[in-house]
Design brief:
Elements lengths: L4 E3 L8 H7 L3 E5 L2 E4 H4 L2 H11 L5 E2 L1 H9 L6 E5 L12 E5 L8 E4 L2 E4 L1 H10 L7 H18 L3 H10 L7 H17 L20
Parallel strand pairs: 5-6
Antiparallel strand pairs: 1-3, 2-3, 4-5, 7-8
């Protein structure tokens, strides 16, 4: 079987990995490993890659789950749900642990990988902005979240409702402001003005950086 994660010891020489990366066959994770671009082109292939990288008994969430659902650029961190702490990087990527509780209805499986479903993934991404100014991450991620919504059939209101019904999820002004920006992008794409009814008001200009 072709391994989902390619290591130097799988190859005939130390330069083979860099050559495969140079011709676009492999995406390198660190100097000693990478994954096949063909594997990353499918949902199941991406799930298999992440399952091989993240720690045992953890679930992918946030930006890592977004990559599984949608593909694109590989995330800088490995975002997981776990009660453990991991100091060592995996394949050159820091593990970012979220210890929050998630109900089973918001977790799903793709092959052997456990991960958050698309709606919960979008909410987790919104909650990333609780410590930083939202403007640092709005541009680019809002469109990626709307792509996720369009691909899997949910809306910004679904995310805001999930924030409201889940007391264990950080429901901060920054997270809501991010979802307001997502809602504007969503409404623009669908030819309508999205009203932030679940927040109790329409978006204000100062919500948008």
């Amino acid at each position: 079987m072709v391994p989902s994660i390619l290591r130097l010891h799988d190859l005939p020489g130390p330069l083979s990995l860099s050559r495969l990366a140079a011709n676009g066959t492999v995406h390198t994770l660190d100097p000693d490993s990478g994954y096949w671009h063909d594997h990353a082109a499918t949902l199941y292939g991406r799930a298999t890659i992440i399952h091989r990288i993240i720690p045992f008994a953890s679930s992918a969430c946030a930006l890592t789950a977004l990559w599984v659902w949608m593909g694109g650029d590989f995330p800088d961190t490995l975002d997981v749900l776990s009660r453990s702490h991991f100091r060592a990087a995996q394949h050159g990527h820091r593990i970012r642990v979220f210890s929050r509780q998630v109900t089973m209805r918001h977790l799903t499986s793709l092959g052997a990988l456990s991960l958050t479903d698309p709606t919960r993934t979008a909410c987790d991404i919104a909650s990333l902005f609780r410590d930083d100014a939202p403007a640092r991450g709005f541009r680019g991620l809002d469109g990626a979240v709307v792509d996720l919504m369009d691909a899997y059939g949910f809306s910004p209101d679904d995310c805001i409702s999930l924030l409201d019904e889940n007391p264990n999820m950080p429901a901060t002004p920054q997270a809501r402001a991010f979802l307001v920006q997502v809602g504007r992008c969503y409404g623009h794409r669908h030819g309508a003005v999205w009203q932030a009814t679940a927040i109790g008001r329409t978006p204000r200009e100062e919500d948008i950086p």
